[in-house]
């Protein structure tokens, strides 16, 4: 059912709270506090909802509370709050991107503002990988000493108020705690009292059990940005030798100090030097779905078809990233396999996973381990692999998995490589059940852009799902060396029962905070040439929806009798125009061009909210949320 809202066009804007919106674009932004007064004055507001993480950190194994040495990564780059501050994304070219999530346990967003609240894009990306996120509370230099005196030198109520407020903020925005960074003189008694209060609050809220403390005596140490990668390698080797946790500060130096065009190559080289000292963790929940999107690209693609051209950057849109590695194969050393991310092509989003390799004649099938899972498996799961081979390659591509024993593991409905191995090649799903048609509608077909989707069914009982691998093999009977270039566009592991459950509907879609602007000078010139008069519309959409079953929301508009494409071209008859992605139940439409209403007539623009399930299938347009805005000129 469509909700209808009416507005009279007025060029007297309703002021937006400066903290929550970029002053130049009015786009929602993440923010920080520069003083204790700002911190203590904060109370949750509807505008804060833009910055709330989609969900808590994914279940992982081993848990963060295990005794294994941990790895903390501190993002300390160029002052922070750069293009990553734009909650709904931006058109940034060559932004910084981190994707070696399986190698770290805790991510700290750092700046030199008193209270650094992590931009929600980082929290969403980290949580998707089972990584906890900390903000920063910092005091430094003379001003820092004065600030500490202001709340620690008084009675207990003053520092309790600060600690309680920090805990409240972490709870509300759904990140996991704080790095407390005090770089000025401070009495031991005052520091201990404050940290104890914050630690108790964090435990009560289900957090990490208290803040990490960055001090000179901290056992967790690590290389700074000025050290060469080789020196960082030696530092980590020494740290791990003694069983310490490690903290890596400002790893973005490969972005800041080296050529941007070589960023991905340099990033992979840097982390490859460290990976042997960085124990990985496993994700332990289903559904497991990834398109390998980095949350950025030079164009936007959906199901192999181009949606929009031009650079984009949206950290919340980053999907689960694999284990990146380069392997030398057995034999005389001529064989190798290398994985890397690539922006040149995509199945969904802006990037894909590129796997290149050479298989010598004496080497059999090669399996590349991509993901480590630790999932108690339901009785039946469906798996899907989307890939394409480039160039004249005849290698055979297949998805493989490993299982562990969760009691008495029984595997059925698949081909087993051998009787003693726990690695399996699932049987392709040839005739899917009717009810699953919208998930498997593309299985086994040649898809746009040369992509192929293979679907599999696995029946299990009492098993743990372990690694996910992709194998490459020469054609049967071939004894020649085989080189290949393969792109992976998507991998899915889905509980079969989840595909039978109905999705909730988008409810109570509203339009508020409407702001009108006159046409730009370029649009006025178009009007003089006979084009319809234009206005620019900004507004906030809000709706109700249970967030747990979705990857994101896609926000569209249907201009109807009074609108046009955001890029100025006609959208086509009744074809929705994509405005952007949302990861919460609200979205800010910014400067959408619409046709001005004529005298005595209503203009109309319709907004649609499309939920994107974690399982990845398309939701019919009839099930999207929808609201119409009717607008008219003021009566004289």
UniProtKB/TrEMBL annotation:
Q: What is its main location?
A: cytoplasm
GO MF annotation, one:
mannosyl-glycoprotein endo-beta-N-acetylglucosaminidase activity
The UniProt record lists the Cytosolic endo-beta-N-acetylglucosaminidase C-terminal domain at 501-632
Q: What class of enzyme is it?
A: hydrolase
Give the E.C. number(s).
3.2.1.96
The catalysed reaction is:
an N(4)-(oligosaccharide-(1->3)-[oligosaccharide-(1->6)]-beta-D-Man-(1->4)-beta-D-GlcNAc-(1->4)-alpha-D-GlcNAc)-L-asparaginyl-[protein] + H2O = an oligosaccharide-(1->3)-[oligosaccharide-(1->6)]-beta-D-Man-(1->4)-D-GlcNAc + N(4)-(N-acetyl-beta-D-glucosaminyl)-L-asparaginyl-[protein]
Q: Which UniProt keywords apply?
A: Cytoplasm, Glycosidase, Hydrolase
Tell me the compartments it is located in: Cytoplasm, Cytosol
Where in the numbering of this chain does the Cytosolic endo-beta-N-acetylglucosaminidase TIM barrel domain appear? 81-189, 233-299
One GO CC annotation, please? cytosol
**Residue segments, region Disordered:** 205-227
What stretch or stretches form a coiled coil here? none
Q: Which family does it belong to?
A: Belongs to the glycosyl hydrolase 85 family.
Question: What is the name of the protein in this document?
Answer: mannosyl-glycoprotein endo-beta-N-acetylglucosaminidase
